[in-house]
Amino acid sequence: MTLLMLTTLRFDQYSGLYAQDLTPDPMYSLDPYRAIPAYAGLAGRSVISTAYRSQWEVLPGSPVVYNIYYNSPLRMTSGSFGIGAELSRSGVHQLQRLMTGYHHVLQTGEYLLSAGGGLGIINAIYQSDLIRTPEGEYGSGNVDHRDPILGSGRFNNSQLCAGLSAYLQTRWLEGGFDYRFAFAKIGGGDPAFYRPGQYFKLMLMRNIALEQWNVRAYFLDYTDLKVNQEEILVQARYRNQFEIGLLWRGLRNESLDAAGGQFSFHLGRGVWLGYLAEWPLNVLKKQIGGITQQFGLKFEFNAVGGSNKLPIIYNPRW
Question: Which of 25, 183, 270, 285 is least crowded, fewest Cβ atoms below 10 Å from its Cβ?
Answer without folding.
Answer: 183
